[in-house]
């Protein structure tokens, strides 16, 4: 991908701690750092290096695979699901194969034989049913997945057969079964009286690694699972260090203290540019995984007029945000979902950056400049608040830029940061005018993102309540999820995405992508269809 350099037109030499990259291929890069003994790929005996030091900004936390607190890369190392999601579709994991009945309501999975949990317990259909029973016991926690709303029941007719019955056909079922959580299998012996909703006794899965040692806020050590049913990984030991600071992580990489950095928010733009021409380190940037955007609350009296929302769209210079804040590594977003997302390659006209058009739309909506330069209508100023996550330097930088830009139109924009939980609570309650958000990303998009718009999961539900076509949009989303006709499904997706685009509820900003920097002697790295998964089992050293 051609690099775009920061033009400094926004915020000077801004150093951003969160970014994404947008490119489908890996690019080699270099640094002048001297190699240390820890960066050699072979030991004194000449054997290939079989250990790796990874890094994360926080520790692994609670790895219960049926809940949502743990680090997903770590859960992927320990636990497995019935199916895997690949670039070519679905492949068997704990289920070797599956059958779907004619009406699409019954899925019969044929369970892989001779699979054992790392504690030696057998992973058969009965163990899988025990996991589903534990998940269903906590059903209310998982209704963000539409499958849970359509689930009639599960059964295990014998040790090699597991059956899921739905009330309606549901095309994303295999995707929801294949994502990191909650449909991952833990040893029933590790459950608390057959339950997992209040915690587990140990993190025992069937995956390629086991958790061997863990010190809160310091490190975790994973070792190869001797009971693993698949091919044994070449990397036998993985140490995960906790390093919260971006620059400290980079220094640790240069010193040979860590081998690999991975994640959308783990590497800043300066580091990406620094390593683009290195021989010692490789930079990898994925295709777009999710969209950074602003949600507009249509229930706000000032934002209920579509012309005002359209004016905000035209007043948002996405190209300037891309280049000035992300050094071009996050490409400008024209639509809520990238055209590479399934069903989203449709003909939508982007809202071009045009301040004159924005001003004209505001005038048409009845807004005129007051004595202080702020637009007013019926004595009320056009004063809005943009809510952002105070933990995100990126969101704060974008907010400050938009505050300056919108002021040119006479829009008074107050920016307000809150810590993550408070920020999310306000989103869910609809207590905002404008708020930053990021769509769910691969492989959840578009189906899970849209399904969640029908209930107060995040801010979408509340923000859309002022739309005249809200009921029609929700009805179409529901029909999408149970449709068995591919052409009809595409037509419905086109209707929903076009309606939301024309209603101007979302201001797309940039397309986030996943990224990594790692030692160039480490082989086998690739991104997966699940954006939080790190395929450690495929890595090796030459």
- Can you tell me the number of structural domains? 3
CATH superfamily of the largest domain: Dipeptide-binding Protein, Domain 3
- DSSP helical segment count: 15
Q: Gap between N and C termini, in Å?
A: 27 Å
Secondary-structure arrangement, i.e. CATH architecture of the largest domain: Roll
Number of strands: 23
CATH C-level name of the largest domain: Alpha Beta
- Give average pLDDT, whole number: 90
Overall structural class, as computed from helix and strand content, comes to: alpha+beta
Q: Which fold name fills CATH's third level, the topology of the largest domain?
A: Dipeptide-binding Protein, domain 3
Low-confidence stretches: 1-44
Percent range for helical residues?
A: 25-40%
Largest sheet: 8 strands, mixed
Rg from Cα:
25 Å
Kindly estimate the percentage of residues that lie in beta strands according to DSSP. 15-25%
Shape assignment = globular
Blueprint (SSEs and pairs):
Elements lengths: L25 E4 L21 E6 L15 H7 L4 E4 L2 E4 L2 E6 L5 E6 L13 H13 L8 H5 E8 L2 E6 L6 H6 L30 E7 L3 E6 L12 E6 L3 H9 L5 E3 L6 H7 L5 E16 L9 H9 L3 H9 L4 E2 L22 H10 L3 E2 L5 E3 L2 E2 L1 E7 L3 H15 L4 E7 L1 H10 L4 E5 L8 H5 L8 H4 L6 H13 L3 H18 L2 E14 L2 E2 L16 E2 L1
Parallel strand pairs: 2-11, 18-19, 18-20
Antiparallel strand pairs: 1-13, 3-4, 5-6, 6-8, 7-8, 9-10, 10-11, 12-21, 13-20, 13-21, 14-21, 15-16, 16-17, 22-23
Helix pairs in contact: 7-9, 14-15
């Amino acid at each position: 991908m051609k690099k775009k350099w920061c033009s400094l037109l926004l915020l000077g030499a801004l150093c951003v701690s969160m970014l994404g990259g947008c490119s489908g291929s890996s690019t080699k890069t270099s640094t002048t750092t001297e190699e240390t003994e820890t960066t050699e790929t072979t030991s004194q005996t000449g054997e290939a290096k079989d250990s790796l030091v990874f890094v994360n900004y926080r520790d692994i936390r609670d790895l219960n695979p049926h809940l949502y607190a743990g680090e997903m890369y770590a859960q992927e190392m320990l636990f497995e699901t019935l199916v895997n999601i690949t670039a070519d579709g679905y492949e068997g994991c704990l289920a070797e194969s599956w059958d779907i009945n004619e009406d699409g309501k019954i899925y019969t999975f044929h369970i892989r034989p001779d699979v054992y949990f790392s504690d030696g317990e057998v992973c058969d259909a009965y163990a899988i049913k025990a996991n589903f029973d534990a998940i269903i016991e906590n059903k209310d926690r998982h209704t963000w997945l539409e499958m849970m709303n359509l689930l009639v029941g599960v059964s295990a007719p014998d040790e090699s057969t597991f059956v899921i019955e739905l009330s309606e056909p549901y095309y994303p079922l295999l995707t929801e079964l294949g994502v990191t959580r909650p449909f991952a299998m833990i040893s029933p012996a590790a459950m608390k009286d057959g339950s997992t909703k209040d915690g587990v006794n140990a993190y025992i899965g069937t995956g390629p690694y086991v958790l061997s040692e863990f010190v809160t806020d310091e490190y975790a050590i994973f070792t190869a699972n001797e009971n693993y049913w698949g091919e044994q990984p070449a990397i036998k030991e993985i140490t995960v260090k906790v390093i919260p600071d971006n620059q400290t992580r980079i220094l640790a990489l240069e010193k040979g203290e860590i081998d690999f950095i991975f994640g959308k928010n783990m590497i800043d733009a300066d580091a990406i540019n620094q390593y683009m021409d290195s021989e010692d380190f490789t930079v990898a940037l994925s295709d777009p995984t999710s969209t950074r955007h602003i949600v507009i609350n249509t229930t706000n009296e000032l934002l209920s007029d579509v012309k005002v929302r359209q004016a905000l769209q035209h007043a948002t210079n996405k190209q300037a945000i891309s280049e000035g804040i992300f050094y071009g590594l996050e490409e400008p977003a024209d639509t809520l979902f990238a055209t590479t997302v399934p069903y989203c390659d449709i003909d939508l006209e982007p809202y071009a950056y045009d301040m004159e058009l924005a001003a004209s739309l505001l005038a048409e909506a009845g807004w005129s400049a007051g004595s202080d330069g702020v637009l007013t209508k019926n004595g009320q100023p056009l004063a809005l608040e943009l809510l952002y996550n105070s933990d995100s330097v990126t969101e704060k930088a974008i907010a400050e830029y938009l505050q300056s830009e919108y002021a040119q139109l006479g829009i008074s924009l107050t920016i307000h940061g809150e810590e993550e939980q408070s920020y999310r609570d306000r989103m869910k309650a609809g207590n905002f005018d404008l708020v930053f958000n990021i769509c769910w990303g691969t492989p959840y998009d578009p189906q899970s993102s849209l399904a969640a718009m029908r209930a107060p999961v995040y801010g979408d539900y509340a923000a859309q309540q002022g739309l005249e076509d809200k009921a029609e949009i929700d009805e179409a989303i529901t029909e999408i999820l149970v449709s068995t006709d591919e052409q009809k499904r595409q037509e419905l997706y086109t209707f929903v995405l076009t309606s939301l685009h024309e209603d101007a509820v979302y201001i797309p900003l940039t397309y986030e992508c996943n990224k990594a920097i790692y030692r160039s002697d480490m082989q086998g790295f690739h991104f997966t269809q699940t954006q939080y998964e790190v395929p450690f089992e495929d890595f090796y050293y030459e």
